[in-house]
Every structure is written in C-alpha cells, then in structure tokens.
Amino acid sequence: MTGISRHIAKMGLGAFGVLAGVAHANSSNGYNLPVGVSDLSVEIHGIHMIAFWVCVGIAVVVFGAMIYSLVNFRKSTGAVPDTNMVHSTKAEIVWTIIPVFILVFMAIPAAETLIKIEDTRNSELTIRVTGYQWKWQYQYMDAAEGVDFFSTLSQDSNEARQLGSGIDPKTVPNYLLSVDHPMVIPSGTKVRLLLTSQDVIHAWWVPDFGMKRDALPGFVNEMWIRVAAGKEGTYRGQCAELCGQDHGFMPIVVEVKTRDEFKQWVEAQKADAKQAGVAPGIATPAAAPIAPPQTAQILAR
Q1: Which among 157, 159, 162 is positioned nearest to 176, based on CA atoms?
Q2: Strand partners, 196
Q3: What SS3 class is residue 97?
Q4: Which residues contact 255 (CB under 8 A, 6 or more apart)?
Q5: Residue partners of 105: CB distance under 8 A and separation at least 6
Q6: Which partner for 1 in 5, 96, 184, 290 could form a disulfide, CB atoms 3.0-4.6 Å apart?
Q7: Does the pLDDT value for residue 142 go beyond 90?
C-alpha cells in the first residue's frame, strides 16, 4: 500500500471511530432517535440502531472500495482500465445474495417487535381514551374501575394563546403542553389503551412511549404501554392528527407513578367523586375553553 493509501486508510478509520462515538453519544442529545421509557420504545430503538449500523457497515465497505480504487488505480500511477470484464455472473449472484441476507437479518427482529406491538394480552390495566374536539376523556377499567374524567388544555396556556391576551407564552410553564387533569398510570404495569373518537379523527401520541395510534369515530383501536419501574415522571404529547381549528391545543400529559402511589391516587379520585356526589364512572364535562376573540365577536352578533 502506498503512503497516500495508508494516510487515507488512517483517516477513514479515524472518521469511523468518531462516527461511532458520536452515534453513541447522540442517543440522548437529540440527534438520534430517543430511547424512550416504555418497553416498546426500547425495542423500536434497538431495531433503529440495527438498521443504522448495517447502513454504516455498507457505507464503509462501498466507500472504502471506491476510495481504494480511486487511489491505487488512478491514471497517474500507470493503471490501465480492463476493457474485457463487461459481465460476471458470479459477481451478480454475490451482490444479490448478500443484500437478501442483510434484509432477512433485519426483518427477523423487526417482525418480532411488530408482533409485540400488537399483542395486548395479559394487560393489568385498561383505559378507554376518547378524543373530542378538543379534549380527551379517560375512563379507567379493571382495578381502577370508576375513575373517569376529561383532560383539557390548562387554563394558563388557554389564556396565553388568545389573540391580544398580552401574556408572553414564554412565561407559561409547558406552554400548550399542560392539561388540567393528566392521565395517570402505574410503572411496571402493562396498560392497554382502547382508543376511539366522538367526532373526528384524532391521534394519541406521546413520543417517550414510542407509540402513536389513531382514534377513529365508530371504531376502537388498541395499543399498550409499560413504563419500566424507576422511570416515574411526567411525559407529554399531543394529538397528531389534524382535527380542526384547535388541533394545536389538544395536549396529552401522562403521569407515571409507582404502583403504591397509583393505588392511592385511584382511592383519592373515587373519594373526591363520592364527596362531589358524582356516581363513579360518570365524568363531568370539562370547562369550555375560552373562545378566541374572533369567535366571541361572531357569537355576540
């Protein structure tokens, strides 16, 4: 190998090392697909990384061969092009079989994950999620039977979004991503969501859970999530289907609590409903959102 070839090879190996380090570091800084906190999001991230490294390997082989050929077989070194090799059956067989093996290698874990995504069996908690223009209703079943409420854009965000409100949105915590009543689930528990809609098509999406499903009127979609123990916290998302005028003001907030904290929360919800004189399982409609100035003028007429 010539001096130039060795230099280029060292540069290539160095670049590959930097790329590998950056790819690993970027798993949490916004450049790569986030890992998420649910079982499925971790599985999906794993498939993504398999595909990524396969692409990196292919790129290294292809561009390495190209650079090697350009450097070692350039005209200035006296290289003469081969005009006889215009067809090779062996080469065609090889470059057909290798991609097939690569695709099969990638398809096996992908198929396994797709099956897991659709498998809602053995869930420990079921929540019916109904989309409205422009709020969500959460109706709990199983161990939390009777807990039922609406979740709407928080009042401070609703006021700040009004035209001419004079409120700086930057001063509002989690602007347009906060609600009055978040959905609450326990960690370490397989939670099945039954998604439907009362009016138009909506989509329930929380990026940290790695899943998004449409909520269709007259149809029930299923999905499941399980957040690992130790990942308790607040996770935010939005309706991901254009559903009308206030589509951008339909956030989703999920609070993940420990199992014990979740049990206490369920008991508190049932106690509050009983004290308010509301039968368990009957949600009280959320307060109507403040009408935008233009709508208020129209209604005034």
Answers
A1: 157
A2: 130
A3: helix
A4: 182, 183, 184, 185, 233, 234
A5: 54
A6: 5
A7: no
Q: What is the dihedral of CA 226, 228, 229, 233, to 10 degrees?
A: -80
- pLDDT tens sequence across 24-76: 433 455 688 889 999 999 999 999 999 999 999 999 999 999 999 898 888 88
Which range, of 21-35, 148-162, 256-270, 282-296, averages the lowest pLDDT? 282-296
By the 8 A CB rule, do 120 and 195 touch? no
C-alpha pair distances (Å), 115 with each of 118, 254, 282 = 5, 25, 35
Expressed in angstroms, the distance from the first to the final Cα of the chain is: 85
Give the list of residues 6+ apart from residue 219 with CB closer than 8 angstroms, or none: 196
Specify whether the CB–CB gap between 227 and 197 falls below 8 A: no
Decide yes or no: CATH 1.10.10.10 for domain 125-287. Answer: no
Distance CA 41, CA 69 (A): 42
Residue 56, token pair as written in the block = 């990196």
Give the CB-side neighbour count of residue 2, counting CA atoms within 13 A.
11
The four Cα atoms 43, 48, 54, 58 give a dihedral, to 10 degrees, of 180
> Which residues contact residue 195 at a Cβ distance below 8 angstroms, ignoring those fewer than 6 apart?
129, 130, 131, 204, 213, 214, 215, 216, 220, 221, 222, 223
The predicted structure's pLDDT at residue 281: 53
Residue type, 32: N
